[in-house]
Design a protein that fits this description.
Helix content: 40-55%
Radius of gyration: 27 Å
Distance between the termini: 23 Å
Largest sheet: 5 strands, parallel
Number of helices: 19
């Protein structure tokens, strides 16, 4: 990531004052029907028609009810004399009674308050970028009770309509406030993210949240030129290819260059990404991973978020080899990641003792070495035709299911993203 360090080294101050969003091309105006706006427009129109229907039913009539009944009787008699009986025969109404609503409102508890309000309201450029947290997630009850059920619910969840807010399936997730996100990240010595551009977007999203900045939160805006401030604003900090190299790859760069923009307390979080996009993994990339892992056990755990697939054309074996290589290198460089009871479990003679020791090892690894594998999102209609067979939605669905089975055998948890993304707009279809 030399391009990033070179970019950060310049240290030129960012321009003061509001961003020159008024100088953008017509693509960025307050009335431009972006895909997100189109989704909200559909919802607004649906609500408008419901309101019209309500007003129509509720309005006072200017004719008497006897007139309406008499007219209905005349129409009914005329219809029965002119139509076959099978068209005029009265059939019993088949009513289906629901015992409860499809989605219950969120629990009236203090920790669910951020789920029900726009947590972006205090973010920089909230009104200019015109996005609310409620556009992204629609809360409901019940809340998932533990991590496994939450991961399953998030992997299986989706949207009721294109670009509608996301909803997990069966139980809901928390929409954490920035303060809660800072507290969660501070529980770890380091959060290491390994993978491709999808993982880069994950890091960008984290930076938006911990910097409370919808306009430039994901990029190194502290040394932007006026042109970069124009081109890499709001959604374009993710969508424009030239802006991707301006992404923030580690929170240490924010602490060094723009510490005032970080909402988390100083020196409490450490999030970093290493781009490792394909297998075989180059030796210099593995060396960078080794450099992140100390030989001595730290006071707090390390967390790993991994994502891979597209750069090896959804080859399952290549992805598993990629994952196994990273796990092996991590354990070799940091032996404290592996349970100290490993030797005793292998030397145990009784099956009962071996099972108990293995259970302790799994508990230790999942507790001190949390690992999550994220599979690629669904393909969009803009995806190039030459990739629609090898990387189309059928291939992605099969890959996600197979990877989930295999990574769990390795003690790694799995989050699927196909279902949660199939009805969302994708800038380039990837």
């Amino acid at each position: 990531m030399a391009y990033e360090s070179e970019k950060c080294a310049s240290g030129s101050p960012s321009p003061t004052g509001p961003p020159p969003y008024w100088t953008l091309e017509p693509r960025m105006t307050s009335s431009t029907p972006t895909p997100r706006r189109v989704g909200l427009f559909v919802i607004s129109v649906t609500f408008f028609y419901s309101l019209v229907a309500f007003l129509f039913i509720s309005r006072p009539y200017q004719v008497s009810i006897t007139d309406i009944v008499g007219l209905d009787l005349v129409v009914d008699v005329m219809a029965q004399t002119q139509r076959p009986s099978y068209l005029t025969e009265h059939l019993p109404y088949n009513s289906t009674l629901l015992t409860h609503a499809a989605f219950q409102p969120p629990e009236a508890l203090p920790h669910r308050y951020p789920d029900m309000v726009d947590t972006f309201a205090s973010y920089k450029y909230r009104n200019t970028c015109n996005i609310s947290s409620l556009d992204l997630h629609s809360p409901f009850a019940p809340l998932c009770s533990e991590r496994q059920s939450m991961i399953m619910a998030m992997s299986s969840g989706g949207r009721i309509g294109h670009d509608a807010p996301y909803m997990p399936r069966g139980c809901d997730m928390r929409w954490f406030s920035t303060e809660e996100i800072c507290e969660i990240l501070s529980r770890f010595e380091k959060v290491i993210i390994l993978g491709d551009s999808m993982m880069r977007h994950v890091v960008g999203s984290i930076n938006v949240l911990i910097r409370k900045d919808l306009g430039y939160g994901a990029v190194t805006d502290w040394n932007f030129s006026p042109e970069e401030r124009r081109d890499c604003f709001c959604n374009y900090q993710f969508n424009v290819k030239a802006c991707s190299v301006q992404g923030i790859f580690k929170t240490a760069d924010v602490v060094k260059n723009d510490p005032e923009s970080l909402a988390c307390p100083a020196n409490t979080i450490d999030v970093i990404i290493e781009m490792m996009i394909r297998f075989p993994i180059p030796s210099d990339e593995l060396d960078r991973l080794r450099g992140l892992l100390p030989a001595k056990k730290p006071d707090r755990p390390y967390a790993f978020i991994l994502g891979h697939g597209l750069w090896n054309d959804l080859d399952l074996q290549a992805t598993l080899d990629w994952l196994d290589t990273l796990l092996d290198v991590s354990k070799q460089q940091a032996p404290w990641l592996v349970s100290s009871s490993t030797k005793s479990s292998r030397s145990a003679t009784k099956p009962k003792d071996r099972a108990a020791a293995a259970k302790r090892e799994r508990k230790h690894e999942s507790g001190f070495w949390p690992r999550l594998f994220v599979t690629p999102n669904a393909a969009g209609k803009e995806k190039p035709d030459e990739w629609m067979v090898s990387q189309g939605n059928k291939a992605l669905m099969v890959f996600e299911e197979a990877v989930g089975v295999e990574v769990r055998r390795r003690g790694v948890e799995h989050l699927g993203t196909w279902n949660m993304s199939i009805q969302s707009n994708k800038y380039d279809g990837v």
